[in-house]
Amino acid sequence: MTESELKAGEIIARLDRIPTWALNYIFLGIIGTGELFTFFDIFNINVSFIQTAVTLFHVSPSQAAPLLGPVVLGNLIGYVIGSLALSPLSDRIGRRDMLIITMLITAIGSAFNAAAFNYLSFFAARTITGLGIGADLAIVNTYIGEVAPTKYRARYVSLVFIFSTIGAFLGIWVGLLLTTPPAPFPNGLPIALGSSGIFATAGWRIMYAIGALLAFISIILRFNLPESPRWLISKGRLADADEIVKKMEEKVTSKGMELPPLPSVLPAITKSPSVPYSEILTNKLYLKRLAVLLPMWFLAYTTVYSIASGLTSLLTAQGYGVSEAGIISAMGVIGFILVGPVASAYGDRFSRQTWLGIGSLLTILGGFIIASTPNIVIDIIGAIVLFFGFNVWVPIAYTWTMESFPTRARTSGFALNDGLGHLGGGLGVVGVTALATSLSALELFGVIASFLVIAAIIALALGHKTTGKRLDEISP
Description:
The chain is an all-alpha fold. It has one domain: Growth Hormone, Chain: A. Helices cover 76% and strands 0% of the residues. The model has no long low-confidence stretch (mean pLDDT 91). This is Transporter. It is a multi-pass membrane protein.
């Protein structure tokens, strides 16, 4: 190793030995605020789209599902383009600066959504929002993984994911409050405002305006984030990386903790290529991982987005009332809320692949419970199980994907899998919503769950192990 490579390796070794979160915890909150908005935007269409379809597109509630599919697909096409085109810039110009840019794009998209005047403009706004979200998720998970302690990467990715679940919860419940008519619980929300005053026609617009406000707040907060030391090293900025790691060490020792012995110094690359994708597509190791992770995400996202974006419309197409379908989706998000605490507590105890198996089994169970009876209380229980199942594996799989590629192309590697994987989500939603009125409930939920089951089989049979290993050991 050259002198600079040795110095870089020593800084990384010092970073890898830090046993706990060593930045200010406020930074987790700053990142989390962005994730809260991101998932607020992903989930707010679930309940509110019925009102959008009725007031803006002039169709009946039962006709909303076919219109939802193309809109979700447009959002996910934007997601894919943003992920593939913008995420690699994070490997070139830095994690923090791109986190600010991607959230700005997302804020603009959400503000445009609030002002949409027809189906085409609504579609365009969702696509713009997708551009920002696609890149943002890739960069956020890369950033957290690069500064988190070796043994607890899934824990801290999952802690940030808690904000995502809060965003999803707010997206659905605010939609229920602002866009559905009141109905006695549990058949609806008694205090819902969706049939009175401005909320009767513009409740959905207010939802997207709230999302834009949250995004602009997140932009301001992100200016306070430090840069990733690993990225700084990949650009030869050793002094800057050393300064940040030194502050992290001081943070740990100020708590009365002792730093463990320095681990072995691994070779470090201090000059990354100008085209990060070439590091993946021309390297047999990373190309092999891409061949496993990409179909896994493609199939799994079909299940995720069919439920996350479409459950209310799917239930309405199955004959449920608007308020009833909305309350089932809204109560189901309780299961999503449980994901963050469970994944942060237990995510590092099992292999990353195991969690896909757990999630797929619970998704099958939740769908079966909903389909087995029209009793709304049982449907709500099923929805809680369903939302927990199709989400519990997500933060662990985020961690796994981030770990699978080197620092010099880590965001790009995440983007290839997560971005292209979202095409599966978009195509799946179009197909599932088109079939919603022709399949029985049991058949519909069986089709939705089958994609996640196949994804889990791929991960369990072909996946590589990363739990507890150093990043530069996994992906040199």
